[in-house]
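Ops channel
N.P.: pipeline sanity check, posting one input/output pair.
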């Protein structure tokens, strides 16, 4: 594991294992579940980048190898990892301020995962497969819907839902976008009870996401 900020510990290792299961396992799901469903959705746009105010102390994360960048709160911790025996790549941005449910802490996090595929698959089909995988493997997963959007001139989908993990009620939301036959998934995970404030920040972060020329 490569660490840009913070320190390696068992917490980060467990996070990477969980993400590898959720994201990396999608490829297996695609071979097992050959769905032919057409996705609908309303065309919407991510808001223009927010400047000043709350984003004054943000920093830029730039990845020259995978050719993308985004801005994030400067006090968040970053860890990077590749999934063993695969080319899947994950960057985890963790909020250092935890929320609590019944006294149990949870650190909201945003992940960026990159999955190269050895075959061509449409954005619509890949989105369907992610939804199917979440439904199958996240405990008591309930979809909160999906939207077709435009970000940086590229078509994308946003999907989300609620689920249970370690006796916590969690919510997840992900941006899914294709770039040159590779798939990017940018996801927020937080407690369901504190979702509103973190989702607002997530939208701000998405407004800064772009591919490098």
């Amino acid at each position: 594991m490569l660490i840009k900020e913070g320190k390696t510990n068992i917490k980060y290792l467990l996070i990477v294992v969980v993400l590898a299961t959720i994201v990396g396992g999608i490829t297996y799901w695609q071979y097992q579940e050959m769905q032919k469903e057409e996705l609908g959705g309303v065309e919407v746009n991510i808001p223009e980048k927010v400047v000043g105010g709350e984003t004054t102390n943000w920093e830029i994360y730039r990845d020259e190898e995978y050719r993308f960048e985004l801005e994030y709160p400067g006090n968040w911790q970053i860890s990077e990892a590749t999934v063993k025996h695969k080319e899947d790549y994950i960057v985890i941005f963790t909020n250092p301020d935890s929320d609590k449910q019944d006294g149990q802490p949870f650190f909201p996090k945003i992940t960026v995962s990159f999955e190269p595929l050895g075959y061509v698959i449409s954005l619509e089909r890949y989105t369907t497969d992610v939804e199917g995988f979440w439904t199958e493997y996240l405990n008591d997963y309930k979809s909160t819907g999906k939207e077709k959007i435009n970000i940086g001139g590229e078509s994308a989908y946003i999907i989300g839902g609620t689920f249970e993990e370690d006796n916590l009620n969690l919510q997840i939301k992900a941006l899914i976008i294709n770039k040159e036959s590779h798939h990017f998934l940018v996801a927020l995970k937080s407690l369901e009870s504190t979702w509103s404030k973190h989702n607002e920040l997530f939208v701000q972060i998405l407004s800064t996401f772009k591919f490098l020329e």
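N.P.: looks fine end to end. DSSP finds four helices and 14 strands in the chain.
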